Amino acid sequence: MKTIHVAAAVIVENHKIFAARRGYGEFKGYWEFPGGKIEKDETPETALRREIKEELAADIKVDRLLGTVDYDYPQFHLTMECYLCHVARGTLTILEHSAFRWVKKEELENVDWLGADRIAVEWVKQL
Ligand SMILES: Nc1nc2c([nH]c(=O)n2[C@H]2C[C@H](O)[C@@H](COP(=O)(O)OP(=O)(O)OP(=O)(O)O)O2)c(=O)[nH]1
């Protein structure tokens, strides 16, 4: 099975976590931590800053690795490096997603997360 390697941002502000709903593709309608594929010659942190700039038009500071999720979808294996981040400059503006919300820790379970993200959500709840 092919492996997809992505970096995802758990962006925290005022004790809330940023969640975005995928607007297209096979996982349309599910919520995720924004991010994307790590390209050759990129570190996960560089990829993450690039993706957030592309998708959300803001600069983030990557604070630390929260954990790495390994998850089998029917179509591929996903390795997802999840980083705690905060907005360094600008305002998060959805350019590719269909919705966003700032979620309190206690409400994380009420979100319709992608399968892989449910694992990361367990870590976020313990922060
Ligand atoms: N970005 C992101 N992708 C996730 C998460 N959880 C999860 O299962 N995925 C899956 C969905 C996608 O199939 C894959 C990431 O692809 P992507 O579409 O975000 O990456 P990308 O922007 O670099 O891709 P592309 O449009 O260039 O193909 O990982 C998540 O929290 N964030």
Automatic annotation (TrEMBL):
Keyword Flavoprotein: no
Domain of life (superkingdom): Bacteria
Top-level class of the enzyme under EC nomenclature: hydrolase
Cofactor(s) this protein cannot do without: Mg(2+)
Known EC number: 3.6.1.55
Boundaries of every Nudix hydrolase domain copy: 1-126
Entry's Gene Ontology BP terms: DNA repair; DNA replication
GO molecular function list: 8-oxo-7,8-dihydrodeoxyguanosine triphosphate pyrophosphatase activity; 8-oxo-7,8-dihydroguanosine triphosphate pyrophosphatase activity; 8-oxo-dGDP phosphatase activity; 8-oxo-GDP phosphatase activity; metal ion binding
Reactions the enzyme catalyzes: 8-oxo-dGTP + H2O = 8-oxo-dGMP + diphosphate + H(+)
One Pfam family per UniProt: NUDIX
InterPro entries per UniProt: MutT-like, Nudix_hydrolase, NUDIX_hydrolase-like_dom_sf, NUDIX_hydrolase_dom
Keywords: DNA damage, DNA repair, DNA replication, Hydrolase, Magnesium, Metal-binding, Mutator protein
Family indicated by similarity: Belongs to the Nudix hydrolase family.
Entry protein name: 8-oxo-dGTP diphosphatase
Source species of the chain: Dialister succinatiphilus YIT 11850
